Amino acid sequence: MNTYLTELYADPHCEEVSEALFLRKTNIQSALDTFKEFAKKGSAISLCALGDIYAYGRFGIEADHEKAEQYLQKAKDIGSIEGAYRLARFYEYRGNSNKAIEGLIALSEKGFSPATFLLGCKYRKGDIVDEDLEQAFFYFKKAGEQGHLIARQWVGYLLRKRKGLLNKIRGTMIIGSTILPIRRAHKVDSLSDCIRIV
User: Fold this and answer.
1) Which pLDDT band, with edges at 50, 70 and 90, does 194 fall under?
2) Is the pTM of this model over 0.90?
3) What average pLDDT does this structure show over 10-35?
4) Most exposed among 12, 67, 119, 120, judged by the fewest C-beta atoms under 10 Å?
């Protein structure tokens, strides 16, 4: 599954919003006008696009963090998983670790495997949270159970670091069992939730 594309295709204004997504690089003003028009009509992908543009100052538009947060919050409020994920990532970018982690945990509890995977990464590296390999293992295992293939690989890597021959064998088997499915997923949809890392 690809949450972003699922939300885009479910958007009643999919065709116009898709065209604006392609226009961003060549005619940002026209794209902004389209996104703003359909954001007013409740287009989650338009809200996400506006949030990203203003969050990171993309396509020659000056960053405006207040606008970015408003657009992403509105996308989240209308039920967009993609909007909620981008809002959590925005909070991380802005240094608001608590809101970022809260948002990722809420998405993880809803079964969104990229958020659960990202929590595992944060705990493994000690990035915005204290390093905790048991928590990392917990989130990687949960993300793997939610279908995230790269998270399953990390379960294998962490098992191999534990004591005991059985852990090393199990870890190696898990890693090996994910290689071909990950390659296939990349060929089919490189943004699929099952391999999404950003």
Assistant:
1) confident
2) no
3) 90
4) 12
* Residues 69 and 134 grouped into a single domain: no
Residue 75 near residue 83 (C-beta atoms within 8 A): yes
How many Å apart are CA 155 and CA 80, to the nearest integer?
A: 29
Cα separations in angstroms, 120 against 64, 126, 137: 30, 10, 7
Amino acid at 100: A
Asked whether the beta carbons of 30 and 44 are under 8 A apart, the reply is no
Q: How far apart are the first and last CA of the chain?
A: 15
105 assigned to some structural domain: no
pLDDT for 155-184, tens place per residue?
999 999 999 999 899 899 998 998 888 888
Distance CA 24, CA 187 (A): 26
Say how many domains are in the chain. Answer: 2
User: Quick one: tokens of 37?
Assistant: 């028009």
- DSSP state for residue 132 in the 8-state scheme: -
Contacts of 179 (CB under 8 A, 6+ apart): none
In which domain, by residue range, is 195 found? 112-198
pLDDT band at 100 (very low <50, low <70, confident <90, very high): very high
Which residues have a Cβ under 8 Å from the Cβ of 96 and sit 6 or more positions away? none
- Report helix, strand or coil for 181: helix
Structure tokens at 80: 């967009």
Does 30 share its domain with 79? yes
